[in-house]
Amino acid sequence: MESLCFKAPVPSCGVFFAGQALSFRVGVSSRGFSPSSGGLRLGNIVCKVNGRERRKAQRLGRSQEAARKREEVERKREEALIRSRGQVASASDDRKRKYRNSENIIVKNLENLYTSDLSGVTSVGVLQLREEEEIPVGSLRVKDLPLKSKISSPETQAHDAIASVSEVEADTRMEVVHKKFTAAMAEPLTGFDGMSDDKDMEWVEVGVAEEEEGDETVEVWKGDLPPMSPEEEEELLREAEREIAELERAASEGRGSVSGKFELEFESEAEFAQEDEAEEREEDKERVLNKSEKEMKLADLRRLVQRMELELEEESSFSGDDPSSAAEASSVLVKKNKKKRSTESDDGDWEVIYNGPGGNTHTSAGNFKSGEWNSEEEDEEEDSKERGIPAVMRCFDRAKIYVKSGNGGNGVVAFRREKFVPFGGPSGGTGGRGGHVYIEADSSMNSLLPFRNKVHFRAGRGAHGGGKSKDGASGTDITVKVPPGTIIKEAGPEGKVLLELTKPGQRQTLLPGGAGGRGNAAFKTGRNNAPQLAEFGEEGPEMWVELELKLVADVGIVGVPNAGKSTFLSSVSAAKPEIANYPFTTLLPNLGVVAIDYDATMVVADLPGLLEGAHTGVGLGHEFLRHTERCRVLVHVVDGMSLQPEEEYEAVRLELQLFNPELAVKPHIVAFNKLDIPEAAERWESFQANLRSKGVDAFCMSAATRRGTEEVIRAAYAFVEEERINVKDYPEEEEQGVEIADIVRKQRSSRIEEFTIVADKHTRTWQVNGAGLERFTQMTNWEYFEAVRRFQHVLAASGVNRALRDQGVKEGDTVRVGQLEFQWLDSEDMANLGEWKRGVRGSKVWPH
Ligand SMILES: Nc1nc2c(ncn2[C@@H]2O[C@H](COP(=O)(O)OP(=O)(O)OP(=O)(O)O)[C@@H](O)[C@H]2O)c(=O)[nH]1
Ligand SMILES: [Mg+2]
C-alpha cells in the first residue's frame, strides 16, 4: 500500500528522530501496535521503519532504548500541550477519549496544512511500507519528491476547502475536510517515481487516526467535544507548562517522576541501567530455579523407571506353568528377547537362541555361507524399542538389500612394438566384463534374517585390457541366496515385483555386469589403421531391492494363541517347535515336513497365534498370515479349553478374511484340540453341532496324546492332493515377474538416436536424455583426442546438435548429456580442439 507523507515548513514541529527514515500509511492498521510499546501517541501515527533503519536501531541496542524513553518524556510533554489546548480534559486512558483526541488532531493538522503558509513546500513524499514492524511516532520524516502543479498553490486550495465546509456541522466537518484533503492529495501521488536522498527529508506533524483491526477506512469519531472556555484553556496550558518546566528541572537533576495533573515520569540513564540490571538478575534467579526444578523432576522420573524395570524383571521370572494374559506375556516378551544368544560355526551354520519366559528356549537355525552372522544385541534392542516388536520378528520375512553388478574393465591404447616389425599396428585389449549378480533360492535357508547383517552385495569389476591384444578378465559374479518363496521387488512404495523364487535351486540373473571398454585394436579400420582411442568400461547397474518371504508350505496351521498349534506340528512331524503354556510362545513360523505313507510328504507351517483384532495390531498382528497365502490348505486348531470355542473360531475366521478374502475361501480343516481334558471333551459336542449347523465338519484331536491327529493330517493331505491336481505344480510365477536383467539389456541396446531434450530456459541449460547416448557418454574416455572427436561426430550424427539448434541453443549455454556437462559453442571448428590438429596425435594430455 502506498502511503502519504507531507513536507511542510512545519509550524509546530514535533519530535525529531535523528537518522530514522520512517514510512507510514494514512489510516494504517494498528495491528501489532501495543500501548506498552509507547502508548497512544500524538496523533496516533503508526509508522513502519524500513529494513535498513531497523537494523541500525537494533545495532544501537541499549542507547536506542534510552532514546526511546527520552522520546516518551517528550511525547508526554506534547500530549500535555495538546490537552492544555482544551481538547481533552485529562490524561485518562479511556480509549474513546483518546480516539476523540486523535481525530481532532487529524482535523487540526489537516487544517494546519491547508491554512498555514505552504509557500515553502516543494514536495510531497510517498514512502513504501517495507518491514512488518510498526512503531508509533508523532512526527514523520518524508522524502523529497517533485510536487505536482495541482497543489503548487495549496494556500488557495486549502482556503477553498475550509471555506466550503465551514457551514457544516462540527462533527461532519472533519469528515468533509478529510475527504477533500485526500482527494486533493490523491492525484500528485500517481506521479511518484522514486525517492530522494535522506538529506532532503524534512519533518511534518500529521495526525493519523488509530484504525480498528481489519477495518480499511479511517474511522471518524462523531459526538460533542467537551466545551471549554478560553480562560479554562489558558489555565490548562499554564498548568502544563509549569509541570513541563518542573519535569525538565527534575530531568536535569536526574530525579525521578513528577506527579501532577499529567503524571509525568522521568528516569535518568543510570536509573534505567540499574533497573535493567535488577531485572536481569531476577530473570537469572528464575532460570536457575527452573533448572533445579527440572533436574529434580528428571531424577524422580529416573527412579520411577528403575522401579518399573525391577518390577518387570520380577514379573518376567514367573514359572512356565503359570497361565498369564496375552498382554502380560507380550510385555515380558520384549524384555526376554534381550537374552538372545547367537552363534555361528566355521562352516556357515548359524543358530539363534531365545530365552523365553519359564526357561523355554526358541531356536532358529540355518546355513548361509555368503553372509556373515554377527550378534548385534544393542541394535536389536533399539529396533525393538522403536517398533514395539523385536527386530528379529520384523526381519524374519522382510529385508532390503543393495545390489550392484561389476563395472566393465577399461580398454587400452597400445601398439605392437617388435623387432623387425615396423608399424605393428594397434594392440590395445578390451576390458573384461563386470561380474553379474545372481539370485538363488537356497533350500537350506528358511528366513531372511541373514540380511540383517549383510545388506550390500557387489559383484567384482572386470580387469582392464592389456597390451599385445590381451583382454581383461571378467569380474567375479556373486550369488545372493534367499530362502525359497522369496519375492524380489524394486525398493520403494510402488516397487514392481521383479522376480519370485519358489523352487529350491532356482537361479536368476538379477543384474548383468557392465560391458568391458574396447581397446584401440577394436577401432582399427581401413581409413584409420592406428586409432588412438579406447573406451572406459561400462558401469554396472546398481539398485536397492526389497525381499519378501512367503513361506512355501502346503498346510498352514492357524488358531488363537495357546491352542496347541505347535504341539500339533511336533506330533505330526519331526519339527521341534517351542511349546509352552502361555500365549505367543511361537514368534516366528515353524516349518515341518509331514510324511504320509512313506512316499508322500507335505510341508506344514505352524504360525504365531492370532487374536481378535489382529488386523489392527493386537497381539503380534496378522503380519505372519502372509505366509499362509501360498498354503493350499489351512488347519484351524481350536482351543478346547476356551470357554467359548465357537466365538473364538469365528473371530479367527474373521481375521483371516480381513487380512485377505482369498484366505477365507481356502479349504480349511477345523481341529478341536485338547480332547484329553474332560472340560474340553464336554464342550466338543456342542461345538461340533454348532459348526455342523454352519455346514462345517470339525475334527477333534488331542495333539499332546496324538489322538485324532492322523485324521486331521489325512484330511489336509486329501485337500493338498486335490489342489495339486487342480493347479499343475506351481504356476510359472517366475515368468510373470519383470526380468530386471532384460530391462538392463534392453537399455544397453537402445539406439543413440532416441533421445529427448529438456530445456531450462531460465538457467540456459539443456539436458539431453537417452539411454544409448548416456551409455556412450559414460564410456567415452576423454583422455584421447580421437575419442573426443568421435563424441562430437556422434552428437552430430545422432541429431542432437541439430535438435538443440532447432530449439534455440545459444553460444555459452550449458548442455548436459547424462552426467557430463558441456558448453555449447556455435563454431563448427570445435574451438580448442585446434590444438590437436597441430600434430599432437597420441598425446594423452588434454590441451588446456
Ligand atoms: N492337555 C493337553 N494340552 C495340550 C494339548 N495341546 C497343547 N497342549 C498344551 O497347551 C499349551 C500350549 O501349546 P502350544 O502348542 O505351545 O500352543 P500354540 O498354539 O503353539 O501357542 P502359541 O505358539 O503361543 O500361539 C502347552 O502347554 C501344551 O502342552 C492337548 O492336546 N492336550
Ligand atoms: Mg506355538
TrEMBL record:
<feature type="compositionally biased region" description="Acidic residues">
    <location>
        <begin position="265"/>
        <end position="283"/>
    </location>
</feature>
<dbReference type="InterPro" id="IPR027417">
    <property type="entry name" value="P-loop_NTPase"/>
</dbReference>
<dbReference type="InterPro" id="IPR006073">
    <property type="entry name" value="GTP-bd"/>
</dbReference>
<feature type="region of interest" description="Disordered">
    <location>
        <begin position="311"/>
        <end position="386"/>
    </location>
</feature>
<dbReference type="InterPro" id="IPR015349">
    <property type="entry name" value="OCT_dom"/>
</dbReference>
<dbReference type="Pfam" id="PF01018">
    <property type="entry name" value="GTP1_OBG"/>
</dbReference>
<dbReference type="GO" id="GO:0005525">
    <property type="term" value="F:GTP binding"/>
</dbReference>
<dbReference type="InterPro" id="IPR036346">
    <property type="entry name" value="GTP-bd_prot_GTP1/OBG_C_sf"/>
</dbReference>
<protein>
    <submittedName>
        <fullName>Uncharacterized protein</fullName>
    </submittedName>
</protein>
<dbReference type="Pfam" id="PF09269">
    <property type="entry name" value="DUF1967"/>
</dbReference>
<dbReference type="InterPro" id="IPR045086">
    <property type="entry name" value="OBG_GTPase"/>
</dbReference>
<comment type="similarity">
    <text>Belongs to the TRAFAC class OBG-HflX-like GTPase superfamily. OBG GTPase family.</text>
</comment>
<feature type="region of interest" description="Disordered">
    <location>
        <begin position="212"/>
        <end position="293"/>
    </location>
</feature>
<feature type="compositionally biased region" description="Basic and acidic residues">
    <location>
        <begin position="284"/>
        <end position="293"/>
    </location>
</feature>
<dbReference type="GO" id="GO:0046872">
    <property type="term" value="F:metal ion binding"/>
</dbReference>
<keyword id="KW-0460">Magnesium</keyword>
<dbReference type="GO" id="GO:0042254">
    <property type="term" value="P:ribosome biogenesis"/>
</dbReference>
<feature type="domain" description="OCT">
    <location>
        <begin position="744"/>
        <end position="826"/>
    </location>
</feature>
<feature type="compositionally biased region" description="Basic and acidic residues">
    <location>
        <begin position="237"/>
        <end position="252"/>
    </location>
</feature>
<dbReference type="InterPro" id="IPR014100">
    <property type="entry name" value="GTP-bd_Obg/CgtA"/>
</dbReference>
<feature type="domain" description="Obg">
    <location>
        <begin position="393"/>
        <end position="552"/>
    </location>
</feature>
<dbReference type="Pfam" id="PF01926">
    <property type="entry name" value="MMR_HSR1"/>
</dbReference>
<feature type="domain" description="OBG-type G">
    <location>
        <begin position="553"/>
        <end position="721"/>
    </location>
</feature>
<keyword id="KW-0479">Metal-binding</keyword>
<dbReference type="InterPro" id="IPR031167">
    <property type="entry name" value="G_OBG"/>
</dbReference>
<dbReference type="InterPro" id="IPR006169">
    <property type="entry name" value="GTP1_OBG_dom"/>
</dbReference>
<feature type="compositionally biased region" description="Acidic residues">
    <location>
        <begin position="374"/>
        <end position="383"/>
    </location>
</feature>
<keyword id="KW-0547">Nucleotide-binding</keyword>
<dbReference type="InterPro" id="IPR036726">
    <property type="entry name" value="GTP1_OBG_dom_sf"/>
</dbReference>
<dbReference type="InterPro" id="IPR006074">
    <property type="entry name" value="GTP1-OBG_CS"/>
</dbReference>
<keyword id="KW-0342">GTP-binding</keyword>
